[in-house]
Amino acid sequence: MGAVRLGRRQRRTKALKELQGRLPPGLWDSVADLNPAERPTMSGLLKAWRRLGRVASISAPDRNLLRAAFVDAFTRVLREQGKNTFGPADFGVSNVRELADLFVTMLDRVGYTRASRAKLRRMRSHLVGELLEVLVRNSRELQPGLRLMAQAQLANFRRPGVGLVDARGKDVVTPASFGAVTTGIDLAVTGPRRSRRKFVDLVHVSVGEFPDGKTFLAILVETEIKMPRAAQKAGKQIGRAQVRFHLRRGDSLSVDVAGHGPLEFKADQILFLPGKVQRNLITVADTPNFTLRTTRAGGYDEAFWEVALDVRADALRRLVDMAVP
User: Which domain of life is it from (predicted)?
Assistant: First the structure.
């Protein structure tokens, strides 16, 4: 008689049962919480994840198995508890399982497993902000407008005789070519005297070349994303962001550019068009509106648009509340 072919759920159940035998006895119940045949709860899953995540002796293959099992379980929870909040398309993914994977990745990135209970409470606002960034980057209402703004700015960069400068204000030679408008995220300054620190949530950029073949990054539109309370004081951060572009000797700007991947640039490879820098602050409100604001935090007058989106902020908080009760 031939071997019985197991389905996906049966294979996962069998693999988890085998994993239980490789864990210390006190952790067996945590793996049992991931049983595909059981109805999971958010609190039970998070408790299990925190316990298992602190065990250093778990091998890499077993951790991959646990992560996949957690994503499956979170998927089932989100299908039940995530109703009347946001859909997968709002976050740029295709289905609920991809949304669960995004959620697990985000929690892992902020150190959820090893955070103390007190820190978990403080983590809520950070997670809400992270999710808002994903929503804005995938907004079907906002992004076309930002891209049009960037395309208009790129046309200005390409005008004959226009005076472009690098991040320290020095004139640069006329570029040989500009690439198409694309986006950049995870901007950070790195160097021998600096740890990686994120600044500016989203930029629309063009990657091009100087006549000598050296690559540059043209900053077209800068976008900072904040929840309403944080947005009130965001002018200070927006002003200082420009100063951070200057870079110290030995520092580099790292940025993940869509279509190019992670790239690094020195100060003389970062291009601006003086007097025409487009900066935006994106937040949420009961009704959409636009407000022109100014700041001198960077050492000189700068103007930026505050754009309030009609986003279900309460629903966004409820989504985070499922992870940080």
Answer: Bacteria
| Backbone dihedral angles phi then psi of residue 80, each to the nearest 5 degrees | -90, -50
Residue 147 and residue 105 share a domain: no
CA–CA separation, 102 vs 97, rounded Å? Answer: 9
Q: Write down the residue that tokens 């949304």 correspond to.
A: 99
* Alpha-carbon gap, residue 141 to 309, rounded angstroms: 9
> Could you count the other beta carbons within 10 Å of the beta carbon of residue 37?
8
Q: Which two tokens stand for residue 23?
A: 């864990």
Q: What is the share, in percent, of the chain residues with pLDDT greater than 90?
A: 22
If one counts the domains in the chain, the total is 2
Q: Burial-class residue 4 by CB neighbours within 10 Å (0-12, 13-18, 19+).
A: exposed
E strand or H helix that includes residue 104: helix 96-109
- Mean pLDDT value across the chain: 81
In a domain, 225, yes or no: yes
